[in-house]
Amino acid sequence: MTARFKTRSFSFAVLLFSAAPMQAAEPGSPAAAVNVFIGTGGDGHTFPGASRPFGMVQLSPDTQHRHFRQSYPWAAGYNHGDGSILGFSHTHFSGSGHSDLGDVLLMPYSGETKLEPGYPERPFSGYRSRFSHDQEQAEPGYYAVRLKDHDVDVELTASERVGLHRYKFKAGEPAKVLLDLRTSIYNYDGKNLWSRLRMRDASTVTGMRETRGWAPGRQLYFAIRFSRPIDTRQLLNREEAVEYKGFAQPGKTPGDRALVEGKALMGDFSFGVPADGTLLVKVALSPVSEDNAIANLAEMPGWDFDAERRRAGKAWDEALGAVKVDAPAPMRTQFYTALYHTMLAPSLFMDLDGSYRGPDNAVHKARDFRFHSTFSLWDTYRALHPLLTIVAPEQRSADFVNSLIASQQHSPYGVLPVWQFHGLETWTMIGYHAVPVIADAYMKGIRGFDVDKALAAMTASAEYGPYGGLEHYMKLGYVPIDLEKEAASKTVEYAYDDWTIARMAEKMGKKDVAARYYRRAQNYRNVFDKDTGFIRARKSTGEFRTPFDPAQSNFGSDYTEGSAWQYSWYMPHDNAGLIGFLGGDAKLVAKMDEVFDVKVDENLYAHMEDISGLIGHYAHGNEPSHHVAYLYNYAGAPWRTQERLANIMATQYSDKPDGLSGNDDLGQMSAWFAFTALGFYPVAPGSNEYVIGRPFLDKATLNLPNGKRFTVRAENLSATNGYVGRVTLNGKPLARTFLRHQDIMAGGELVFTMQATPNKDWGTAKDARPYTQTAY
């Protein structure tokens, strides 16, 4: 047990860990440094449960209030502020701003059978149980808790496709398990379109459910295998009145059936009194069929829980070992936890035989790649995917690209994913941001996918007129607000995506394609109002919409989850163009200072739950602001970036449960932290450049996918020495304020010498500044 956990002396620990060490991760290892509870409070929306890196099963406790229709605080199922657990389900989002999943919920118990979850404020009103954080432990690949009302100790671990539970019941008490297919993290009437439970043998249950939540028509199949034969069982349909085999019975169908179908299914299983009080349960998932779920159980052939826990811990140590960090606590904990959170999605969504379900809801088979889904692309194209090109094997990024291409080929609309999970499209957020993910990987030399198919998929998405006002964008050069909502945001995001297509096409030798998209990449200029200095929405007749308030933000208004104060700096591929519009370097610096320093009424953005982490108008809790602090480098004032980064790191992150100022958004908030802690950030993925900020780690060594090592070292780093005095790359002075991707992948050493006062000479020259499309 590392220092991040309290010393605990209770019978739970004695019982639960008498045969196994309290922590499977090696002391001092990367996995041992992770605190999985960071982000589980506040609006971080992360979960503390067990998974493997990018695994399909993400097994975690759910504390959500099932009777609440509004489930934003429980988007990941678990909220650290709660005091009771509903059960343990096998699918979760890490840090999303939208709730769904929570499939196949199991709850172990003894005593009276209760078929409703009950209420948190009324103990024993249902099968829900109280718990205490003092009797809870977790690390990557492992979670444990004591259910106080049931006298049951629960441990969870997982392989990629199989979740493994170990329950320890009170001596002499019967072992019982409840399965509830009605529950979901996204709760509203009628979510379950259909579900099935089927007894396969004395210890195996299979089933499925089809839901109409965030992704309509989503199907998921499962196989549950118990370590002991089932003694007694009930398979129930809890619909108010059900016609079953010719008769109606309110409240349930006969419980002795071996097969039950309907919209409100439950299973209640009893196993007698185990001599050692222990019951283990395996749950395998499949996107395809119950038979495939049974076949996926082969991924975990034995019942050795401790061995599986060690395997999960080793998998995490290997993944997190891509970076070796020397830093004092809490920075080391925060860094490795951030890195951990970047390795939960996109998640595997493919059976052992390669079968998966695509956006056409049909079954396909992956050949020579592993199909992944859960692409929160509006968030993750910015930093998460660029980070994974450095810290994950190249095959991982190639798998992501192949998954995106396959999804485009299976799409009924012929477009790349926008926000996809479990193979299905949600059409959430804006842009066609699968495009920069593919382009960034290609520009960095990652292969293993069909490049021509990739480019064709990218252009097909960029030219699909019915989506998001693209038909108007292609005709007018901007998205008109009188014909399409969030038009200002869509215009600037489309322009950036177009630039990444141009970059890739140019490198492929497709000059005509490159020229067309380089022209489209300048469309952001059509919505920049030089008179006000802001990006603004225009009507189809050409004039800007009035009245105009740069602080106005509403869902479906001119901007997406933001205001003009957050969106007017979004042309990451052409920051020199922004500088020209504003009137020069000094004007950009002044405008950025105004963004951060203006006094903002705390209620100004209170109606927008996604605009959080405010420093002035800068909103670190939402993605449109994430590159803004680095813009000073483009105006020759890198010391101002260094100041802003110090403030953001100190105020927007901590090592506590509420240590994320906004939704982690499938790892984007964490990826920002990881890059910034290292000392650089990808302002414009596709440029092959990283803008230098300042380091927050004494030393970090990147164990690169190509086998080489790149070390970042900070000399004289302290709380008072927050400015970069000088920088060397492989022993030679580095005058520029950016790194090239090839600098990192070649291996070597980047050394920062830190000091207490700004160095206003370094990085000021025009040729020292990062990439921009427009010449200075």
TrEMBL record:
Signal peptide: 1-24
Name of protein: Putative alpha-1,2-mannosidase
Entry annotated with the keyword Signal: yes
Gene3D superfamilies assigned to the protein according to its UniProt record, in alphabetical order: 2.70.98.10, alpha-1,2-mannosidase, alpha-1,2-mannosidases domains, GH92 mannosidase domain
Species the sequence originates in: Massilia aurea
Record domain Glycosyl hydrolase family 92 N-terminal: where: 34-286
Gene Ontology molecular function terms on file: carbohydrate binding; peptide-N4-(N-acetyl-beta-glucosaminyl)asparagine amidase activity
Keywords: Signal
Gene Ontology BP term (one): carbohydrate metabolic process
All residue ranges annotated as the Glycosyl hydrolase family domain in the record: 292-755
GO cellular component: cytosol
